[in-house]
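User: Can you help me understand a structure? I only have the sequence.
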Amino acid sequence: MPKRALIERRPWLLAAIVAAVLFLWCRNSTMPGLYLLALKALPFLLLAVYAVLRHRGKDTRTLAAMLVLEGTGAALHDLYDYPATVLMIIGHAMGIALFLNHLRRDLAMARKIFATALLLLTPLVFLLLMNTGRGAAPAFQGLALGGMAASAWASTFVRARVGSSALIVVVACLIALEWPSSQIAWPLFFVGNLVLATGVTGELRSRPD
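Assistant: Let's start by predicting it. Here is the structure, written out as tokens:
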């Protein structure tokens, strides 16, 4: 089984990280835009493959769909803002579905308060930061993103990995909204999803069916 794990899963995770580093290396180069767009989405697609191979089940298929949608949305953001935002909203909604399926029943009061704050404050901050010419789509993204982070924080997954990585995703999206040309938003977005994906799949593998 360890050899099979090495052959089937870890190379996909390594490939996702290598692709992310390659994109960061090439994003200010003269590479044609279409190839650069594909390279920007590729790390998330590879991460999705890793997820479905590490744990074969409905939850990881939902996780993979979230990664594909979010990665594609992030890649299209500079060219097709509205379709990209819609993809991100659907991706966040897939994350909500995943985490609500593992909602913690005996949630401590402090965690309830923090999850509620994420749910309410994230769309509020999006509203405050969004450009008035972009319509209501960013506000809906803020609501979906806040719901994803709040449900991750309130889920049975380890807060130190999954909950915290969801917060990194929120911060990355806020940076991208306020400073579209920021060089740090995409790396943060990838790292957050990387830690989230490995945390979720690792826990699912350790749990009895």
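Now, to help you interpret it: The CA atoms of residues 78 and 107 lie 39 Å apart. The chain has a mean pLDDT of 90. Let me know which part you'd like to focus on.
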